[in-house]
Give the backbone structure.
Amino acid sequence: MMKKLALVLGMLAVAAGTLFAEAKNAVVLDMNQVIASFSKTVAIKEEVEADGKFAEETQKIKIEEFTKLREKLNAAVEELKTTRSNPTLSKSAVTKAEAEVEKLYTEVAKAEQGLRKSQQEAREFLQKKFTEKTNVVLKEDILPRIKELAKKHNAEIVLNRANVFYVEESADITKELIDLLNKDFPAPKKN
């Protein structure tokens, strides 16, 4: 399996090298920096962070409820210890206390599972929202500007800097792209 993967990766590297060698000109950009600096994606990030803060507040309420339930379980466990150590109480009283602890333990386990699931769903929702909105901006705003700059620089290939080991500064169009995007799409005025 590993040999097949290495062979495929090797063939891809040769193909990419051949393509790159045939290109007369290439430019690079740092897409992470573009996403972090473009006014539209910054606004998306701020929106998602605001949604995240709302989700945190909702989670705090659920955590408080979970904490109360856990405290109730701890109190029931202490009561069970007292009940078991009291020789004057009947076996049915001990059984009843054990059943209460068992019931509360099950409730706490379900509540904890629900809390974790809710937290995971909130994280996934926020990540999906950011990704979907950023992909729209990428497709509608960023990629057309990349093509525009590639033509301006007579570049046949535009590479993401994350995948390039070395590049001359003059071939890096990141700042130029960010400036163009922010000029074409200025940040909205905040009240």
